[in-house]
Amino acid sequence: MPRSKNDFWVGLFVMLGLVALVFLALQSANLLSLNFQRGYRITANFDNIGGLKPKAAVRSAGVVVGRVASIGFDDQRFQARIEMDMDPRFHFPKDSSLKILTSGLLGEQYIGVEAGADEKNLAAGDNVTHTQSAVVLENLISQFLFNSAASNTGNAGGGANGKAPAAGK
Question: Tens of pLDDT along 76-112?
């Protein structure tokens, strides 16, 4: 009998440890939000959202002020339609602007909020019209390569005088 009692307590301890690890993993990945207050939902349309995902952060001045609730496609405007759940503690003017930004060079994407100056604040159901799409790294690289290839076609021989440069010089 004492052995089964010890097994029960060891099993319980292991289960609590696993639950704690799952909780920490979800918290560190910003996938778990323990805010039980009901916020307000706003929408915005973007031409290109890059790699933005649902549950991505909505930040202002580096502070998480909301989360991306859903991502859809508006087939009338041919744009991505983003719905965001904003924290009820934070209110932004109606003329605020939204940008899709990246944490670091290749980090996660999030929505950045820049507050406007309007006296009225955003409310549930409002649509933000001032948006800036994501900067896609692949597009920047292809533009750079295209521009450098176009500038090199003017130099057919490779050298300044049209002759190939001599080796070893």
Answer: 989 999 999 999 999 999 999 999 998 877 788 899 9
Please name every residue paired with 67 in a beta bridge, in sequence order, or none if there are none: 57, 85
Six-digit token string for 116 = 């406007």
Average pLDDT in the chain: 83
DSSP notation for 12-78: HHHHHHHHHHHHHHHHHTT------S--EEEEEEES--TT--TT-EEEETTEEEEEEEEEEEETTTT
Amino acid at 32: L
If one counts every other C-beta atom within 10 angstroms of the C-beta of residue 85, the result is 20
Task: Provide the β-strand partners of residue 97.
Answer: 114, 130
Of residues 87 and 160, more confidently modeled: 87
Name the strands in the sheet holding 127-128, side by side, starting at the edge strand that comes first in the sequence: 127-128, 40-46, 79-86, 63-74, 57-60, 109-114, 97-102, 130-132
